[in-house]
Amino acid sequence: MKQVININFQGRVVPIEVSAFDILKQYTESLNRHFANEEGKDEIINDIESRIGELFQERLTNGATCITEDDVNAVIKSMGRPEEFEDVEENAGTAPKTGPATASQEYSSAQSGHKRLYRDENNKVLGGVCAGVANYFGIDALVVRLIFIFSGIGFFAYILLWAFVPSSAQTVIGSKRKKLYRDSDDKIIAGVGSGLGNYFGINPWIPRVLFALPFLSFVFRWNHWGAFSFPEFVKFGFSPGALILYIILWLVIPEAFTTAEKLEMKGAKVDIDSIKNSVVEEMKGVQQRAQKFGKEASATVADKTKAFTSEAGNVARRGSRSLGDVIVFLLRLFAYFVIGCVGLVLVVGLFFLGFGAVGLFPLKDFLITDGWENAFAWGTLLFFIAVPIIGIITWIIRRLAKTKANRKMIRLSFGSLWVVGWICAIMLVSSLFNDFRYTNKNLVEQDIVLANPGVKKLELSSVSRLEKYTRSSWFRVEPFLGLEDDTAYIRNVEVRIVKATNDSFRVTTIKMASGRTKTQADNLANMIQFGGVQKDTLLQLDKGIAINKTDKFRNQYVILTVYVPVGKHIKIDRSIGWFDRIHFGINDRGDWDFDSDDEAHGWSADIEYEMRADGRLYSLDGRLAGTPRHTRVRVTSNDDDNYRYDSTNPMHKVDSMRQKVEKEQQHIKDSLEKQKEKIDKQLEKLGDTGDGGDDSQSINGARFPVYGPMVTVY
Amino acid sequence: MNIDNTASQMRKGVLEFCILSVIKQGEAYPSDIIDKMKAANLNILEGTLYPLLTRLKNAEFLTYRWVESNSGPPRKYFSLTEKGAEFYKELEATWFELANAVKALTDAEQEHFNNNNFNDPQ
Q1: How far apart are CA A574 and CA A708, in angstroms?
Q2: Is the N or the C terminus of chain A less surrounded, counting Cβ atoms within 10 Å?
Q3: pTM for the full predicted model
Q4: DSSP 8-state symbol, A383
Q5: pLDDT tens across A640-682, in order?
């Protein structure tokens, strides 16, 4: 059963099968291309077409109901395909153009003495780059291949050359010419894998497995999702990458519909190529091919080309004339540049947002309630973040490839999916906003029982001394301290140090939380478990506030107040938190923010202080606390841990950059002076004086880790 | 260098001469020309013929008139112009010159050729 259409062919109505019509159309197109540079092109084609029309009419008058594929093929056979035509032109004596390309070495030199670099598809191993380069320089392809393999840049250079060097097949008539199509005959999802297999001449299962591989590893790596260190980040980032790549290829690579396309896909010889494919003609061919899939009328291309050329001509003419047009042109160029930059930033931003969201996704169960909110979270990830990424990349590639098919439909579907994404994102945010609406009001100061409050010195730490050194470094998502199956630990702990009224230590906690209702907030605050055990001078506190998946993270927050008796020492280990707390939502706790002049917070982690009668802390060398030590750390140490620590230091400590810089300079000065004093003392002991403190200081800094017992050296 | 190429180069050189000689015998329609050439065992594709005719016409060696046809679109019937007749004469002279030369050069082969191929039915 075949569909029959009526066409107006040379002024006669001809009933013809659709498939036969496609063949006929391709044939006339190939004629058009063949005679493109001929003087009487229109006349020749007209003659040929009228002859074809005559032959058709003959069939119909002989009793055929319509023109079939066989009829068309028979007609084409009698007329001959363009590459079978015998050119009796002036150039008939030059190259053996009608025969298949024997060796492109011959070919490239035969081309009117002008050597050009082509990829040699006839002698290719991968893309014919090496063979082409070898042809160009007249050396053995094996030599070039070895150079490519053994030089480091070979791979990238190869890819670049593959992409940019034209294939010899494009200019040699009748030789193979492969195009990338999706193979719908042999598909599992969309035929991308089999299409790639066809293109590279490999088993379709190779690209399929390559696509699937990251997914397999993705599944195996599921438990390590919290890992945010860079190599792992890349690895699991690749798995959605494979999916995105697949979808993009799906959208970008056209499906092989017609027989000719299927032949092209497999690199078989297709007879519509011709020697007269100059660069211009090549462009025309691309347009025609794109058009074949598209629904636009065939006239538009011609119109467009005409319009474009006339426009281009106008621009060129006007451009040479008036300065105003030059300015307009430059402005337009600038506008495109800006648009390009914005687009690039958008894409990069979205990518980072996407990766960030994917990375934080395992934590979502601690934040988001099941049901609608969960659905919104997924919707946001997929539609709000992934869809525009895929959309923009697809758009760019389609622009580059000049594909026009289904533009409207794709735009529409991307647009509507993104609208869904927006709705999800807005619903998610508003729902979360509600979850953090209220803060508990029942603030009670609860004591942490100390076994021996009368010690001379108290050191607060959230990890035992041994653990401090083995603490796993894989965890990177601050401020979540750790992630177990259904518990996350957050370090929302603020430490305040005040003077005790008697001579024993006292440690209290105030617990806070937010919630959808006031009751919920109160409940969550009451549920916070945060305590500690005293061992001699060490008060080992819980490693963070435990958040489970049922109760979720709702700004659980602990204020730890340490009452230090006058004359006794206090040291807070950095593991307690204090610096990196996270906080969602509405309640501004600005009044608690850390001001370095605040007596309750004017101290740094990992330094031993002494409480004096004025209620202030003094470091052991007698300096008033309140100079954040971490800035000094950055000067004196290149310890990686400290560097990161410093970078996570919240900006709200200082109001402006200027102040910060001034302060830092001051600290550097102070620390240098201190170092110098120390060194001077040491040198005095040796009965000598001198300087050179700078050097020893840096050595000092590099030698000793900042945390731990050694830190007391400072 | 292969046999197909060389053979086709040889043929190309004489195609125009052959077409002109067919038309010289009387007004001709392209498919008549094809048929006559086929009868002489010289196969030519219509796709090759049409461009040649157009070129010869553009060079004012040929002229044509439209004749209504009952089996399709009107047909072009080609005939030689005066200029074309002169051109043909020159070609003819060249051809016989060439043919004689080739004959003289390949005389030794000729006998062999005759024995093998000449009696084949055409």
Answers
A1: 10
A2: N
A3: 0.37
A4: I
A5: 444 433 444 444 444 556 666 677 777 777 777 777 777 777 7
